[in-house]
Every structure is written in C-alpha cells, then in structure tokens.
Write a structure and sequence with these properties.
single chain, 321 residues, alpha/beta, Cobalt-precorrin-4 Transmethylase, domain 1, Rossmann fold, 3 domains, five-stranded parallel beta sheet, 11 helices, 12 strands, 19% strand
C-alpha cells in the first residue's frame, strides 16, 4: 500500500541547551577521570533516556547525600541547582562534591542573595516542588522568599509590611504566563524591583518562540521530552495556545498514541531542553514507517551559548587503568 504523505515541520532551536550539555558532560567527564561509580544527587536533567544512559556508564543516582556510601567517590549536583544545605552537608561529610548547576540558575540564586542583603523580600515566580524552585528558595532563610504560582496568588499576596519587594523567576517557565503574573505583580506593587536581565533562560524562550511559529501551521505537534520536565510541559502548552489541535508530550516512540494523530498531513516536532536529538530522530523514523515523510526545519534563532565544565573537571588527570 502507498503510504500517505506527511509534512514534518521541525522546530529549531530544540533539544539540549548549554546548561544541560554541561551537566551531562560533567557526569561523563567525572566517569572518565575517576572511574565508576560516580554518584549524582537527583536526576542530572529531567530525561529518563539520559538518566538510563548514564546509569549504564556507571553513574549512580541517589535521592539524598546520605545514600552515598563512599566519601572518596565524586557526587554531582544536578543542573537544577540545590539548596545551600546540600553543599553544606557534603562539606560536613568531606564528600568530593561537584556542582553542575546551570549557570543561568546560579544567576537567579545570586540575584536572590543580593536582594536579601539589601533588605528586600523576594517573590519567586515558579512551580512548587520543582527542583529548581526548591534550590532557589533554599538559598535564603525560611520566610525570605514567597512563591508565586498563579494570578490568584498575586491577588491574595500579603507581603511583609514596610519591606521593599523584588522578584525572580524559575528559568523554565512559560514566557507568556510569566509575563501576565509579573504584570499583575507590578500593578499591585509599582515599586517592585525586577531582575537586571530576564530570568527565563534563552533556551526556554527560543524553544517557545519556535513552537509559536510552527503550531498554527500544523494539525498536530509532538514535544519530545519527559513528563517531569518543566520546559517540555511548557512547550506543549504553548503549542495548544497557539492553535495546534493536537499537542502531545512524548519521550519514546512506544508512547505515541497513533489514534490521536488520525489522518494528519502536517506535523510539528520539537524537543525540550533536556531531550537528546537521537529521540527526535527516533520519532521521525517512526512516522516514516507509516507516512511518506518530508521534513522541513523552521528556525527562529541561532544558539551559540557554551558553558565550561565545573572547575574540578577541567584539565584533571584521568584515573589509572
């Protein structure tokens, strides 16, 4: 039987950002330099495929530092950042700790610290329970930061009396949602101090812009990524709001609900910042088995950002064989 035609619009930029590349490279370089096992506190990035791949190479993922049995082995903190109590615990146990926090998350941490030192109460726009939010709130004493998730939170917010206000944001939020919340905060608190530079990272912004361009042109759109990836979930939401009738978050081909796509003739594909390109290719191959596929890339930005490895992994001698 002749396969039906399918035009695939491939969003660019998509997939790995510089912070994710740095974090994954940190684990792989640590394995080369120090051998296995290398311990990683929490998922290095929110992608099951990446985590399983690193496990096969000798990485051991733990929930807490108390699960690291050997203080001589490296333990790496994830790209999402950690509360100050975590490196303090590592230091108290004399662990060989390597911080792979994305530099753009570290920027938010430093901003929050500066505001606190200047006597300001900080409003953090983000999602409760996300590792990045836990890490940012953990930079300062309890009560120094108030988490704002929704417009409803803005409406009922009662900040400390007589204290100036500043805001920071999670780096992986929806650009449009965050703009609405910030505008509501500024309307209520005109003296609110903003970040010197946008906290939502370049990769999140660029990937959302590409989806906004593609989503109105296709009948369905797939975001390649994990369900616990904030930036991937935001891409799916952006596609829906941009008018795409079917938007699905999919990690691997076995998760594709083929009935949901029906007799489509146009498909958009993007990938969250923690999803490797090999998974995008896997998804395209799966559609190519059912359709006569033609692929076109729709690019909205060029990315040339690079972050060097953590200092402990630069120019260090490799472990003896």
């Amino acid at each position: 039987m002749t396969k039906p035609p399918l035009d695939i619009l491939l969003c660019a930029p998509r997939g790995f950002c510089a912070g994710v590349v740095r974090a994954i490279d940190a684990v792989e370089k640590a394995l080369i330099l120090h051998g296995a096992p290398v311990y990683v506190r929490h998922e290095i990035v929110h992608n099951k495929y990446v985590v399983e791949s690193l496990k096969r190479k000798g990485a051991v993922f733990v929930s807490e530092l108390s699960q690291v049995p050997d203080a001589t082995r490296p333990v790496i903190f994830s790209a999402h950042g950690v509360a100050k109590s975590v490196p303090a615990e590592a230091n108290a146990r004399n662990l060989f700790a390597i911080d792979a926090t994305c530099p753009l998350v570290t920027k938010v941490h430093r901003e929050a610290e500066v505001h606190h030192k200047r006597g300001r109460h900080i409003l953090l726009v983000g999602h409760a329970g996300h590792p990045e939010v836990i890490g940012t709130m953990g930079q300062l004493p309890p009560g120094a930061i108030t988490l704002i998730e929704t417009l409803e939170d803005v409406a009922v917010l009662e900040p400390p009396a007589g204290q100036p206000l500043a805001y920071v944001t999670q780096t992986t939020l929806s650009v449009d949602d965050t703009r609405g919340i910030v505008e509501a905060l500024q309307a209520r608190f005109p003296e609110l101090i903003a970040p010197h530079k946008e906290d939502i990272c370049y990769a999140t912004t660029n990937r959302q812009e590409a989806v906004k361009r593609v989503a109105p042109q296709v009948e369905a759109l797939i975001v390649v990524g994990s369900p616990n990836s904030s930036n991937s979930q935001r891409l799916r939401e952006v596609a829906e709001r941009a008018g795409c009738p079917v938007a699905r978050l999919v990690l691997r081909t076995d998760e594709i609900d083929w009935e949901a796509f029906g007799a489509i003739r146009t498909l958009g594909i993007t990938a969250g910042a923690s999803a490797p390109e090999v998974l995008v290719e896997e998804i395209i191959d799966a559609f190519a088995q059912r359709y006569e596929v033609r692929v076109e890339t729709v690019s909205t930005a060029d990315e040339h950002v690079f972050f060097p490895l953590p200092r402990e992994l630069r120019d260090a001698p490799a472990a003896a064989e």
